Predict the structure.
Amino acid sequence: MKKLTGLIVLIFVSLSLFSHPWQPSHYVVIDTDAGIDDMRAISMLLASDDVQILGIIISGGALSPYDGYKKVKSMLNAYHHEGIPVAMNYNRRGSDMPVPLAVRWGNEDIPVPETNGFNTLCKNILSYRDKSFKLISLASLNSADQLLSTGILPADRLSEIIWSNNSLNNLDGFNAGIDIKSARGIIKGDVKLTVVGYPSSDFYDQSFLMRLQETKTPYAQKIFETAVSSPDLQNHTYAARANDEMTAIYLFYPELFSNTAVKQHSFCKPLPGSDLKGAALKILGGTDARGLQTIKQLPADPGFYQEDLGPFLDEIISKHGDEEWRAAVLTNEIHQHLGIYSIVGVKMGIRAREFFKVGVDQMKVVSYAGSEPPLSCLNDGIQVSTGATIGHGLIEVQTENTGPAVKFSYMGKSITIKLKDELAAELKVELQDLVLVNGLDSDIYWELLRQRAILYWKNLDRNEIFEISE
């Protein structure tokens, strides 16, 4: 009996560590008024694979919803996360503060919706997600109050509101001041409200900025470059403070905060001496571990790999990232040779996941690469990089009107990613010439194909070689 009890305990411990490893722990909707601290907070949330951002609402506050949309959408485009839904809440005009307005988050020459679309965004999320999610509010609570009071968002579908504001009892602070009435309405409601306060000292000092610079993710680099390159922030005292960023740190490291209960709600404030900066750096460094199921990591030692590939390892990882490298290594082992189209499939699958900012096993896929090699080799790269495998029933392969194109669908939205025509023509001619000169069964053909595949692996940038259409 004791042995059986021990076995059951071991199973439950194992389940807690390894069950559903492809799913993030946090599904969230973000509400933002596009302040500088919002940019940093959103970047932190984007940096973690353990967070799935279902949508972003732009509300009036530090900026108008119109200007805030340009900031947020341009940053998502710069991160190649164009598929994250963004909607407007025009209920509050906003302040158009000069410093947040002047700091550019990306290429802001983009069209802005004229409709109040956050209700539709919420309805769409509810139609595709049957479980609850969290609302992380970096602005007023107007969006939350409107969605809940009108019944568009049922209270049982919202597990928690995490709100950035430096008080709960007195409701002072910038975000509360935007809409006191909505804040009081949420406090009287049934949904758990966690209010996250701010540290009292400066956060973005020179030492921390240097550590940010050394963190080689686009999210850390964005925060660093904005801090050091924007003249409007150089002499602005507020820019060195951390406010809305604390919601992201709290989400991952609640033990760094005190917790004061106020009825069913709580106010959480950074504990004195807690390593908030270290936590921020861990978040911005990204997460990677849960993508592997039988090994902890792939070695980064060139000597571990075949002699012709080892010299290219550092450059490939530096240019294209660990995730593409890992998916390509596993694809080549499954595929049993280094092929050009299988490498293209890896890059295409990773690009689709970046577009929607999703993990593996979350997209449905229709491949137009057919079932005839060499074009069909693209399917192996797609399956490994996206998790949309035949076994999971998430991929369909069309055998008519074939071409180097794949349709990816997530939460009601579909995109088609297609290899650019000029590159597709180049690859087709190159492979035909290799077969014509050497013969498909010759060792020389496979050796030359391997050499060409390694070069394409190194040189092709997934953000430049595809056309994406919605």
Summary: The first strand starts at residue 26 and ends at 32.
